[in-house]
Amino acid sequence: MLAINQSETRSLQFLCLIGFFMAVAADASNTYTSSYTLCEQTANDTMIELTIDEKLERMQIEQGAGAVCDNLAQCSAIADDLDYMKCIREIGNKNLDILVEIHFNATSAHTRLRTDYDEVHQTFLLCTLEAQQVYVNSVRLAYNELLECRAQMENCSNSIF
Predict the structure, then answer these.
(1) Which of 11, 64, 83, 147 would staple 102 via disulfide (CB 3.0–4.6 Å)?
(2) pLDDT tens digits, residue range 119-153?
(3) pLDDT per residue over 71-86, tens digit each?
C-alpha cells in the first residue's frame, strides 16, 4: 500500500484548490465572452433600428444634387449669351432653393444620425462595463474562496501537529 505523508496530502489538496480556482476563472472568462458577444449583437441590432433611414436621406440628397446639375446642363446647351444668362438667373433661384433644402436635410439627418450612433455607443459601453464587472467579481470571489480554503488547510495541518 502506498503511504502518503502529511506534506504530500497538503500539496494534493492545494493542487485541487488551484484546479478549482482555474475552473472558476475559466468559467468567468467564458461568461464574460458570452456577455461581450451579446453586447456586440445588441449594438448591431440597434444600429439596424436607427431613427432615420440614412439610405433614403442620402438618396434624396443625391437626387437634389442631380437636379441642380441637370438644371445647369439645360442652360449650358444655350448658345446665345443673353439667353444663357437669363437661363442661369432663372435656374439660379430654383437651384438655390434646392441647395438650401439639401443643406437643411443633410444637417438634420447628420444630427439625428450622430445622436443615434452616440446612443448605440453608450449602450455598448455600459453593457460591456457590466460584463467586466461580473467577470471581476466572479474571479474575486473565486480567489477569496481559494484563500479561505488555503487558510483552513493550514489551520488543519497546524492543529494536527
Answers:
(1) 64
(2) 889 988 998 999 899 889 888 888 888 888 778 77
(3) 999 999 999 999 999 9
Q: How many domains does the chain have?
A: 1
- The answer to whether residue 123 sits within a structural domain is yes
Distance CA 123, CA 116 (A): 11
> Is 59 part of a structural domain of the chain?
yes
CA distance 148 to 20: 13
Retrieve residue 36's grid coordinates.
461581450
What whole-number distance in Å separates Cα of residue 14 and Cα of residue 17? 5
Q: What is the DSSP letter of 77?
A: T
Q: Answer for the pair 28, 135: CB distance below 8 angstroms, yes or no.
A: yes
The model's pTM: 0.61
CA-CA distance, 102 to 80, in Å (whole number)? 31
